[in-house]
Amino acid sequence: MPDIKITPLGAGQDVGRSCILLSMGGKNIMLDCGMHMGYNDERRFPDFSYIVPEGPITSQIDCVIISHFHLDHCGALPYMSEMVGYTGPIYMTHPTKAIAPILLEDMRKVAVERKGESNFFTSQMIKDCIKKVTAVTLHQSVMVDNELEIKAYYAGHVLGAAMFWIRVGSQSVVYTGDYNMTPDRHLGAAWIDKCRPDLLITESTYATTIRDSKRCRERDFLKKVHECVEKGGKVLIPVFALGRAQELCILLETYWERMNLKYPVYFALGLTEKANNYYKMFITWTNQKIRKTFVQRNMFDFKHIKPFDKSYIDNPGAMVVFATPGMLHAGLSLNIFKKWAPYEQNMVIMPGFCVQGTVGHKILNGAKKVEFENRQVVEVKMAVEYMSFSAHADAKGIMQLIQYCEPKNVLLVHGEAQKMEFLKDKIEKEFKINCYMPANGETCTINTPTKIPIDVSLRLLKAEAVRYNAQPPDPKRRRVVNGILCVRDNRLSLLDIDEMCDEIGINRHIIRFTSTVRFEDAGPSVKTAEKLKTLLSEKLEGWTITISEANISVESVLIKVEGDEDNTKNIYVSWTNQDEDLGSYILGLLQSMVQ
Amino acid sequence: MKLYCLSNDAAKPCFVLSFKELLIMLDCGLSAHSVLNFLPLPPVPSTRLASLPNYTPPHLNDPLLEGELKECCGRVFVDSIPEFCPPLDKVVDFSQLDVILISNYTCMMALPFITEDTGFKGQVYATEPTLQIGRFYLEELAEWVSGGAGGAGGAGAARRWKELLHVLPAPLALAARPRSWRRLFSAAALSRALARVRVVGYDERVDVYGALDATAVSSGFCLGSANWVLRSAHEKVAYVSGSSTLTTHPRPINQAALRGADVLILAALTQTPAHNPDHMLGDLCVHATVTLRAGGSVLCPVYPSGVLYDLLECLSAHLDTAGLAGVPLYVVSPVADSSLAYSNILAEWVSVGKQARVYLPEEPFPHAALVRAGRLKHARSLHDDAFSADFRQPCVVFCGHPSLRFGAAVHLVELWASNPAHAIIFTEPDFPYLDALAPFQPLAMKAFHCPIDTSLNYSQANKLVRELRPRELALPEQYAAAPGGAAPRPHIAADVPTVLLRRGAARALGARRSMARATLSGALAARVAPRDVRAGLRAAPLQAALRVRDRRVSLDVAPPAAPGAPRPQAPRLDCSAPDVDALVHALGREGMPDARVERSADGCILHLPRHDTLVHVERHATHVFCQGDAAVRQALRRAITSCLPHV
Ligand SMILES: [Zn+2]
Question: pTM, whole model, 2 decimals?
């Protein structure tokens, strides 16, 4: 039994950063290469020394696959390729390849320029890294080498997000990355076919949540924003530049239009226009509705949403500001937060998950005071709202995906241990398959059945089919083939015995047994033969019995009736050595009939 | 494997391949040459066309022919709604087709003829750009053909002339099987047909009923254009249709995927082998510049996608350098806006150079920027208010249809024909330009022929075939060397067995299969211990449980037989006769020491009187005659088996 081995270097029972090692059929694949946003030291990158304590890493990894552009999935990629020295192939979709470098650069600036960190990758390193990326399209079957094949499926989590199917020989694995099973305002739902992988590695961010209906959440969000600005408050919505931001913009834009509101709405990033351009270019990755109408109206041209300028922070009066980054861990969103937090008419809406260690995580857990590096303490009087807009599959969605692709095993990553435990139980009960949830650094081994390719003689299969179809249909009936297995140059084939003899140029030596049974039965031999045939048909279900005059045959067994009209008949039963079971059974039948 | 050819037009192919008990249609091209025999359908009534004289064949008085034919400058045209020549429907029953694979949008225009009202139940596969741009082509065609105003002989279809070909003048007299020509399908049939298409990506393996995989691979000809590779466990068929090895805007051709096929089917080579597309593009720019400088306008009758994008890119750049940056460019088509917008969201289907622009992010094609700058304008029709208000001359107008039998181009030629300052430049290779112009004679405006066909020419195709090394090659007969006596023509010459096809013909291809691919479970494999039969070959008898699911065969450990009834056993391969002395010895061990041996020329007979048994040993058979005692028989079996060499 060949094994599949999985070791999470990140995302094992946590949501911090995804980086999972997969080994099967002698190939090692890295699934995502994310960065932990909660740390400022070396802990933010995966521990590559786990793979190889010293020396080049390239020979240990056959390829790296990046599921989507979020930094917790691709943030460590330039570090790995430019600083650790990985030179092997890297795969991601076209939109991911287009957008990831922008987010990486954005993060780099925050880390190096604002926080003054050294030993971080440079702009040039990001560019060099992305140059090495092979972009793939959906459903394209990509041969990484002669044995390793990968294929991307639509994941619906952000623009360009993909799940990957990975095959080596007869073994296959699906890695979901982050995915979403319900279509939203700009993306479609994740989709996969019934590919029956040996293992499904799925995220489980919302393992225990059954999210309330999308529409309710949207209404709730709009109501809260509206109430706050009506009272003259300022609403801060920390987002990542691409992804959820576009969906929330579409939502606010249509609401402002419908309600005829005049409060200013800002998107605080030079990237806005550029970001929206990416959505225009890759509109084939958005949902049906946007794709259908894009010629008439581009959903990403906003009328009410204007670019933000830093000087607006201190402007009096109501406003809504979208600012990056999304977890309030650095940058502009954090600056605005510091200014607005002490006033209770203001509000911050966290539209996504926040990892531990970030300000977002602290205030969501009810912190009323936040302390910063420079001992600055900010009082949090503003309203803090959490609205789950992150496009992750909920428990129902995860179960749905399992149903779609019918895996033989499931492995949970990118979630919290307790919640995983609950989902693991549910999956094992409902689907009767094994479910695993290794922690970081822990290796999980999964046995898979071997399947060896073999060529089967069509003559053999056709003969079997004739026999099978001659019988009344019965779904429980077992089908059996008999042949000679040949092994040549490590290639297997199953041949009919005569084909085999032809093939190797030998004549078969056939051994035949013949016995005689005496039977008192008046009348012509043909009549006797017919009686025998009736008897045999009753007893030999599933066999083809043919009769011609006084000769009956079943496979190689021949039965011949001889004798005069009114006399005792001689019944000869003859069969080849191979059909000994059948021959002796028939002989036994006839002998007991005679007595 | 068998291949049927259903199209007469090698550039608009339609084949049906029967392969692994499946019927697979490769492309469904619609030949439109037939429309040249008809009078143009002007989008607005034309007094000139309406007043063309009737034509009556000499010495014929047939009232049924009345009004069907008109004459213009010595040439006779049918005054009726134009008809097309769909693929032959007599050879293959379309209701039996399992799959239709489409290579590019120029080769799918007959789809509704195949799939609608024929009982078709199969699947249709095409890439996303093929489906979308194909839709533009078809919708435009349907709208042009149904939107004609007056001129043509009303609602009634002219039919009588088809019975009287023998008395009509050329070229009408040479029309090929006009009785099989059909009017274009309805818009409803068209949208039903397109709704059937399933979209695939390049290099996506499509499972076809479990029997084989079909993969579309880039062919480099136009956006989304594909060659198809069909693969079963033992055979590979490559269908190469509309391919290009030139560098233009689409993704380059993927040759590696086509290598080493058992059968290579080659179709849709260039229609203008004597014209180099690069030179033609250069000529076009020059003719346009000269015409515009002299105050004339330029008409390019084109399809709404494809080379149009290259024309816009090159011509606008050329005019800029020629100091004609102020000349407006117009694209007139019911699908102009969609086509121009759509081309700019196909980042994954364009060349690497164009793709690099998307990463910036900028549109891959410059025409979006030309539209924003107001340099390029597009309109649904010539009568759009916004368009007519804005129309300035001199200008360049791109509009359909390249046959000049329907569409806005008909009106513009009518309008400009008498002015020698204007020019019409033909770029689409589908129609002979003089035939296209015939119903507009006499013509004062200049006409230039600059056909741009980026499909493989013969030397490129020959080179490709050499590189791909197929075992067998199949071609439309038009691509073979001219028959003896005829003038030589460019052709495909390959040193592999070549099968030629003509419309209506069926040819057997490839070797017969004898094996099917299956999987063997590890558990079963572990139970068999093959023995050496000879150097490099090991063998063992094998009994296996057979499972067939979605046509996929798998072999696993057979469950134990139900008690009672016997079941077939795995065969034993006994290679030669038992050694008789050894056999006598073995019988002794089994408690039968009394064997008498009689030797003869053929072999020998062993006599076991106490057990009433005879054993005939010959070279290829051993025959045991014994009585019904099972214990005795088993002992005999053991003895014989022990001295037989076997697998
Ligand atoms: Zn994500």
Answer: 0.83
